Amino acid sequence: MSLTRREILLASSATLTASVLASRGDALLAAAEKPTDKKFKKAVKIGMVREGSTLLDKCKLLKELGFDGVELDSPSAVTVEEAKRCIAETGLIVPGVVDSVHWKQRLSDPSDEVRASGLEALRTALKFCKDIGGTSVLLVPGQRTPDANYEQCWDRSIAEIKKVVPYAEDLGVDILIENVWNDFLTDPKETARFIDSCGSKIVGAHFDIGNAVRYSPPHEWVPILGQRIKKLDIKDYKRPPEGGNLGAGFQAKLLEGDVDWPRCMVELRKIGYVGWGCAEIQGGGREWLTDVAARMDKIFAS
User: Fold this and answer.
1) How far apart are CA 92 and CA 49, in angstroms?
2) The 3-state secondary structure of 189-215, one letter per residue
3) Can you tell me the distance from the alpha carbon of 50 to that of 245, in angstroms, rounded to the nearest whole number?
4) What is the pLDDT of residues 216-267, one digit of tens each?
5) Does the N-terminal peptide bond of residue 35 adopt cis geometry, omega within 30 degrees of 0?
């Protein structure tokens, strides 16, 4: 079957467009792995974006509002191809992903089967992250529960993490421990000791500034965790009145809680941290995200 001149031109145009997108995507992935500029970059968790019917719509909105990146979840329904297309078409970077099952399939669980499932999910997240040009997977390593006391939580989760460390090292993707309200690793020294006990520099800290307020001032965590900090979660927290609802403290907007942001930034610069900060707060549409972006800019400039 012979093709008309118009059909040949259309096919050539489609091929060229796909080639350009692929080349642009590869360049952006390389940029994500090897940042060239020393500045704070702002991102949000994908769940915060309540406007847009597709991942591409959400990424376009974030790029328009001045965000540099977005963190995705894995495992999830988002494919590598979809994520890479969004990166190529918007210029938005995915600096890292969040392990989506670490609360349910805990590495501290007493069940061998549950821990194995959690470990497999972590492997999936690491591979997905590598394939889309990211550099880290955020992990909650466990939770102190009636069937996992502090020592058991420590021993079980470290043992599981060590199993996947060689794989993470081969991929060049960090496993970053987040400080959360899990009754485990609520102290910066313990968090640092836990990270070091995993036996590899591929394991570090995804320091959540707002989560730390409940236990001690976040700026006191920074010099203790030091070079272990490789990513930041940006949120504020307002201590409630005595006897009040602790969770309500996260309703505070950025810059309206109890985080001493200028002191945090001073301490972060002292350890040489200049990199990604990802908002992890309540979500919204264009107006809300515009405000979040402006507040993050003020934080990073403080």
Assistant:
1) 14
2) HHHHHHHHHCCCCCEEEEEEHHHHCCC
3) 26
4) 999 999 999 999 999 999 999 999 988 889 999 999 999 999 999 999 999 9
5) no
Residues 216, 260: contact at Cβ < 8 Å? no
Instruction: Show the CA angle centred on residue 135, arms to residues 56 and 229, nearest 5°.
Output: 120
pTM: predicted TM-score of the whole model, two decimal places: 0.88
Nearest to 24 by CA among 97, 125, 93: 93
How far apart (Å, rounded) are the C-alpha atoms in residues 258 and 250? 10
**Residues 152/111, Cβ–Cβ less than 8 Å:** no
Share of the chain above pLDDT 90, in %: 86
Mean confidence (pLDDT) of the chain: 91
What is the C-alpha separation between 273 and 275, in angstroms, rounded?
Answer: 6
Q: What's the chain's Rg over C-alpha atoms? A: 21
Is the Cβ–Cβ distance between 178 and 233 less than 8 Å? yes
Rounded Cα distance between 277 and 269, Å, is 13
Task: List the beta strands (DSSP E) in the chain.
Answer: 41-45, 69-74, 96-99, 136-139, 174-178, 203-208, 229-234, 276-279
CA separation for the pair 285, 158 (Å, rounded)? 39
Q: Are strands 229-234 and 174-178 parallel, antiparallel or unpaired?
A: unpaired
Residue 95: closest CA among 276, 230, 247, 236 = 276
pLDDT for res 50: 98
Q: How far apart are CA 89 and CA 195, in angstroms?
A: 37
Cβ atoms of 249 and 236 closer than 8 Å: no
Query: Residue 229 has what DSSP assignment?
Result: E
Q: What is the DSSP letter of 100?
A: T
- DSSP string spanning 38-68? -S-EEEEEGGGB-S-SSHHHHHHHHHHTT--
CA distance 290 to 82: 25
Closest CA to 62 of 73, 83, 48: 48
